[in-house]
Amino acid sequence: MMLVLANVLLLLAGGLGLLLVLSLRRSGPEGPVGAHMVTAPLALGQAAAVACGLAGGSVAGMGALATVVGVALPGYVVAMTIVPIAALSERWRVPVRLATVAVVAGAALVIHGNEVGPLAAWSGAAALAAMGAGGYGVLLAWWVQVERNRARAAQAEVGRMDEFRASQSAWELGEWQKLPADAELWQLIQFAHAHHPEVRAQCQARMRALPDLDRRMDELLRTGWAEHALHYVAVDYPHSRASLAAALAPFLDAECDKWAAHLRDAAMPHTWSVNLAKYVDCMRAVLADGGDLHAQAARWRTMLRSIRGLGPLADGLAA
Question: What is the distance of C-alpha 229 from the center of its chain?
């Protein structure tokens, strides 16, 4: 039964494939657009014919022949989807026609292996294997090109980031030099984590030197500049953070409510984890210094755990 099916499939797919290749002519300037929609089903039909032949025992007792052909079939499908299209070019028309005749004949020899004998069957298998190797070569070339494009894109992105950092650093240096000697803390905090290393170092040195930094930071955290100070408080604050808890508590409560509403409507809430990390880091730092933000940490922990994908961030506020 399988051999009958193999012959029927080969007659249809192989016959139509030969007819297509022998009759192809370039018909217009658009070239082979959409031709794969015809060649791919024919290639699959031919491969299915051979597979049915192998399943029906067409080459039983011929050693590794069935394995060689079976391994070649996926590449064969790729090659026979592409190769017939080359017949549109006059330069490749004759070689493509010869190759198509050879592989269709090879498929027939494999399907009738028990009738034609091992030598003929192996000859047919060689034709199929050669075409399969070509298909695998195409897949390898495609993969190499994809990886090269990916590497070029990554390199271009690195270049864009370097250009951004350079331009941002230049802008930061210019703005920093405009600040007066008695600049307010809200003016300084903008440069606490500047891209420009000298600006960042000078800014943090000036803030550390403020004799009333704790009072000024307490006042700042009660204004709209609080969000800009979170990372500095969490990472670089030179004094105990415990005294800042009173100013941070109402701000963190309000931010928790705002983010809860935003995240519940977000399609991919986990993508906001970078934005949320500064809140978690700040609370952890203040708590570590003995500041009383336990109620706020509990609220944020509950909120984050209720949002899909943000559980790991909530773990940073574990009780």
Answer: 34
Q: What is the pLDDT of residue 249?
A: 97
DSSP state of 132: H
**What is the Cα–Cα distance from 122 to 72, expressed in whole angstroms?**
13
Q: Are 59 and 2 in contact (CB under 8 A)?
A: no
244's tokens: 């800042």
Cα–Cα distances (Å) from 37 to 84, 86, 244, 252, 318, in that order, read 12, 15, 68, 59, 57
Alpha carbon distance 246, 282 (integer Å): 13
Cα→Cα distances 188→208, 222, 223, 234, Å:
11, 16, 15, 16
Tens-digit pLDDT profile for residues 50-80 = 889 888 888 877 888 988 988 999 998 999 8
Query: Rounded mean pLDDT of 156-183?
Result: 91
Cα–Cα–Cα angle for 137, 143, 144, rounded to 5 degrees: 90
Secondary structure class of 152 (helix, strand, coil): helix
Predicted TM-score (pTM) of the model is 0.58
